[in-house]
Design goal:
This protein has 57 residues and is an alpha+beta fold. Helix content is 26%, strand content 53%. It is built from two helices and three strands. It has a three-stranded antiparallel β-sheet. The relative contact order is 0.31.
Protein backbone atom coordinates (compact mmCIF):
# COMPACT_ATOMS: atom_id res chain seq x y z
CA UNK A 1 0.00 0.00 0.00
CA UNK A 2 1.15 3.52 -0.83
CA UNK A 3 0.22 7.07 0.16
CA UNK A 4 0.96 9.77 -2.37
CA UNK A 5 0.90 13.55 -2.50
CA UNK A 6 2.05 16.43 -4.62
CA UNK A 7 3.60 19.63 -3.37
CA UNK A 8 4.72 22.77 -5.19
CA UNK A 9 8.48 23.02 -5.58
CA UNK A 10 8.58 26.47 -3.94
CA UNK A 11 7.04 25.04 -0.73
CA UNK A 12 10.40 24.15 0.83
CA UNK A 13 9.04 23.90 4.38
CA UNK A 14 6.36 21.47 3.24
CA UNK A 15 8.88 19.33 1.37
CA UNK A 16 11.15 19.15 4.43
CA UNK A 17 8.19 18.20 6.66
CA UNK A 18 7.07 15.43 4.30
CA UNK A 19 10.61 14.05 4.07
CA UNK A 20 10.81 13.92 7.88
CA UNK A 21 7.64 11.82 7.82
CA UNK A 22 9.31 9.40 5.41
CA UNK A 23 7.97 10.56 2.04
CA UNK A 24 10.36 10.31 -0.90
CA UNK A 25 10.37 12.21 -4.17
CA UNK A 26 9.04 10.04 -6.97
CA UNK A 27 8.87 12.55 -9.80
CA UNK A 28 8.27 16.09 -10.99
CA UNK A 29 5.73 17.70 -13.26
CA UNK A 30 7.11 20.74 -15.08
CA UNK A 31 4.96 23.88 -15.34
CA UNK A 32 2.12 22.29 -13.39
CA UNK A 33 1.03 25.37 -11.42
CA UNK A 34 0.63 28.91 -12.68
CA UNK A 35 0.96 31.27 -9.71
CA UNK A 36 1.66 35.03 -9.66
CA UNK A 37 2.48 35.05 -13.37
CA UNK A 38 5.05 32.23 -13.18
CA UNK A 39 4.86 28.50 -13.85
CA UNK A 40 6.10 26.18 -11.10
CA UNK A 41 6.91 22.47 -10.79
CA UNK A 42 4.94 20.01 -8.73
CA UNK A 43 6.89 17.37 -6.83
CA UNK A 44 5.25 13.97 -6.52
CA UNK A 45 6.06 12.21 -3.26
CA UNK A 46 5.13 8.81 -1.91
CA UNK A 47 5.38 6.67 1.19
CA UNK A 48 5.12 2.90 1.16
CA UNK A 49 3.56 1.16 4.16
CA UNK A 50 6.61 -1.10 4.65
CA UNK A 51 8.93 1.94 4.69
CA UNK A 52 6.75 3.68 7.27
CA UNK A 53 6.86 0.71 9.66
CA UNK A 54 10.62 0.26 9.18
CA UNK A 55 11.23 3.87 10.26
CA UNK A 56 10.42 2.96 13.86
CA UNK A 57 13.17 0.30 14.03
Amino acid sequence: MRIGLDVCAFNVRGIIAYEKLGFKEEGRIKDDLYYNGVYHESILMGLMRRDYYQMGD
